[in-house]
Amino acid sequence: MSDVLTATRVPARLGRFVLRMFRPQIYVTYGVLWTLALEGSAEALSGPSSHWTPSGATAVRAVSVVLALLFARMVDEQKDLEYDRRHNPDRPLVTGAITVAELRGAMALITVVVVVLNALVSALSVLLILLALGYTLFLVALERWSPRIGEALIANLLVSYPVQLLLSVYLYVSLLTGDAIDGDGRAVPLLAMFACAFLQFEFARKTEWRRDPEARLYSEVLGPRGSAAVCLALAVGAVALGLLLFGTRGLLPALSIVFPALGAWRFLVRRQPSGLMLPAMGFVLFFNLLCFYGSTAIAIGR
């Protein structure tokens, strides 16, 4: 009887963990928009011979990206356990609302699901999504081998960001293997455009006026103004790359620059403690949405 009760409680505990720590309304939306925006943009750059439309393979890639983001969230929760015991005592792992074993079981299930799904698309898709999940686990071993990497914020960003980059490569190459697009050198600025959009949010969420050396803030390293400037520069970089790639057709995504500009004003002029974060998330979501909408309009207009 106790085993049956445990078996029924684990999904509920995992569900509560996901709702609290992963916020599906944000991250699922982000993962789906990221997939559609990157695929649509790649198609728009591929020329009149391309024939991409959202398909079953697109759905597989979108689900895989969302599950990979959840996988990374679960890994981070375990990796930061000792830090959270000191600074975030209300976290699920610290309070016992979820256990390490339960998270690892969910991670194993995620791995099986993405392998099965991507086997329907291509062998290379399986390899690349496993590479992204494997790199996430590699980061845990790397930080244990060299704790200074985990403590040095900029160094940690440099070694951890490739997880997001690998997911973008997975999306692009998986699309390429389906003969939906013709790849060329413009893939590099295209992937860089999405990298800038994500990184501006990464800096925004860790930029505050308060001083707290234990809080792992970029503003502790670069200063509040310096960190806010990097955040705004990355948003401008994403917009500039969009205009470089699409010309005047990139003006629609460029409109989303109003979000980081508003965030910079709230943070630097109004000195609101965390004024950058919500506008930065708005930029990520609307930039991806407008990239997809704009690239779809380009395809229709050919």
Automatic annotation (TrEMBL):
<feature type="transmembrane region" description="Helical">
    <location>
        <begin position="187"/>
        <end position="205"/>
    </location>
</feature>
<feature type="transmembrane region" description="Helical">
    <location>
        <begin position="276"/>
        <end position="300"/>
    </location>
</feature>
<feature type="transmembrane region" description="Helical">
    <location>
        <begin position="52"/>
        <end position="72"/>
    </location>
</feature>
<feature type="transmembrane region" description="Helical">
    <location>
        <begin position="226"/>
        <end position="245"/>
    </location>
</feature>
<dbReference type="InterPro" id="IPR044878">
    <property type="entry name" value="UbiA_sf"/>
</dbReference>
<keyword id="KW-1133">Transmembrane helix</keyword>
<protein>
    <submittedName>
        <fullName>UbiA family prenyltransferase</fullName>
    </submittedName>
</protein>
<keyword id="KW-0472">Membrane</keyword>
<feature type="transmembrane region" description="Helical">
    <location>
        <begin position="93"/>
        <end position="117"/>
    </location>
</feature>
<dbReference type="Pfam" id="PF01040">
    <property type="entry name" value="UbiA"/>
</dbReference>
<dbReference type="InterPro" id="IPR000537">
    <property type="entry name" value="UbiA_prenyltransferase"/>
</dbReference>
<feature type="transmembrane region" description="Helical">
    <location>
        <begin position="123"/>
        <end position="142"/>
    </location>
</feature>
<feature type="transmembrane region" description="Helical">
    <location>
        <begin position="251"/>
        <end position="269"/>
    </location>
</feature>
<feature type="transmembrane region" description="Helical">
    <location>
        <begin position="26"/>
        <end position="46"/>
    </location>
</feature>
<keyword id="KW-0812">Transmembrane</keyword>
<feature type="transmembrane region" description="Helical">
    <location>
        <begin position="154"/>
        <end position="175"/>
    </location>
</feature>
